[in-house]
Structure formats: structure tokens, C-alpha cells
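Re: the 341-residue chain
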Amino acid sequence: MIDLRSDTVTKPTPGMLAAMIASSVGDDVFGEDPTINELERHTAALFGHEAGLFVPSGTMSNQIAVRIHCRPQDEILLETTSHICLWEAGGAAALSGATCRTIDGRFGLLDVADFEGKIRPDDMHSVRTRLVCLENTHNRGGGTISSPEALNGITQWARQHGLATHLDGARIWNAIVATGVPARTWGQMFDTVSVCFSKGLGTPVGSALLGSKELIAHARRIRKLFGGAMRQAGFLAGACLYALDHHIDRLAEDHANAQLLAAAVAAVPDLKLTPPKVETNLVWFEVSERLGTARAVANRLKSEGILVAALGERVIRIVTHLDVTREQCEKAAAVIRSLGR
């Protein structure tokens, strides 16, 4: 079975497993796990921040960021289809008492003009606009990349208005490889950055929240509150350090494989790429009524040995990753093309 549902389905490589086994560990709650400490320092430095915090998931990383930036009755400005808004179980409201004010983007992309007039008045009847959250690359937007210029314009605007900024960079590694823009350039624009190790980089578990020493000290307390503090987690950090050394540059292979699959989708009249241009490792497309529902098409592909994600009545997502080869993607592309016959 060729699994194209998500880049979270990967298994550790032999080299990664060896690195995990060889990792030195200690009790991270006591701050005594040397591999965790190394990962946090290294990742923070990579993105131009003072400190980092290892957490089990990207959702927890984002929600810790919301909690340290917001109080109850605060408001977050973010894109309508962003992960924090759609796919984190209402965490901003449930865990931080914050509300989300959504802004419609163009396949997830925003620029500074979209934020003009969005700050609430200083009035007891209104929530307090407090935080801007951006996502890069943008999952529901189709793996689209926000340019450094667009992000810089938005974060400068936020700073001028006294707003905090957070980047959901679950797939920022893909943006780094696709654009050649270094991690530090992306990271230094934001007060906090969340990065994920268990998507494109292929580790079994883990994300990191990056920021100033003061913010990360606060985040450490919130991680404990949310149940994310772990003990001998250095084995997981060892996988992340290995991935940082060995799995970033190879993301270009995933992008090339996504182009191959996107071309197959584009060749079928009853399928429509959304967005029409695939930039990274995500291929989203709509299914026409003639072919049936997305679930029906997904089941048809499954019968041919291809797993995809039906994420709406007529929406399918394909994701390339470490565990699918070029040969497998060529096979999947042939099966997709057969949908048009």
C-alpha cells in the first residue's frame, strides 16, 4: 500500500533508530536530559531565537504559544483555514479563553493590507486584539508558501500596533528548501515560532516552540499545565537531531514527487487542483460530481493500493514524504490518471 494520506505516517529510518538508541538521556522535567537540551538550543539558534522548548505535538506547541501571548477575552487574528483555527479542537477558546477573528486568504496567503482595520477599539464591549498567528507553509491552502516580504510586512504592522506574533511553522522546513531562504530569516520576524519534526523530517514524535528566554520560561510552565512535560525524552530528541542533519535537504525529493502527482491530477478533467500551482509536498484537489464524492474516489484509489485523505465532500489531499519513493509516486500517478478513462 502506498500511503499518501499525510507526512505524519513515516517510520524512523535505520540511521534515525541508531541515533535514538545512542542518545544520552536524563529527566527533562528536572532539566537534566542532555539530548533534549541540545535539541532545544540547536533549533532555537537555527531560527535566530534565544531558547526552545520540546513538546509532544505541533498542536500543543501552538496552543502553548496562544496561552503565553493571550489572556481570557483576548483575540487572535489569523487566516480562516489555518490549522490553529480549524484543526486544534477549539484549543484557543478552551485552553486560553481567546477568540479567533478570521481573515480570508488566497489559498491561505495573506498580506499586510488584509489586516488593516482589524484591530478592535479600546472599549469594554470588545475583546482585546492581542495576537497575530500565521502559518507557513499553509496546509489547507495547499502547501502554499508565504513570502518573507509578505510575512515581514505583517509582523512589522503587528509590532507597530503592539500585537504579538506567532508562526505555525509545522512545515516551515518545506518553505526553507523550496525558497532557499534560511531558517533564521523566517524565524526572527516572529515573537514565537512552532516547528514540527514529525512531518516532513520523519521523526516519530515532537515539535519545538522557539522564542525569547522569558517567553520560553513561561511556556515551560504552560507545558506542564497542559501535560506535555516528559521525562527521559532524549530518545525522541535524538531522532529530531538526526533529522535536522539528514532529512532537510531531501525534502526537495518530496516536492518533485508532488509535482509528478499534481501533473497526473491536472490530466484528469474531473479533478481540479486547488491551488492550481503546487509549491511543496501537498497536493489538494477537488472531485467533480461525475466521479462521485471524495470518499468514493479515495476508496477507488485504495482498491488500487493508493491511500489518500478525503477531507471534505469533494476534497482530497495527497502528501509526499520520506517513506514514498519516486517509483511509488509514478505508480500512484498512473492510477490517478486512470480516473479519467
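The first strand starts at residue 2 and ends at 3.
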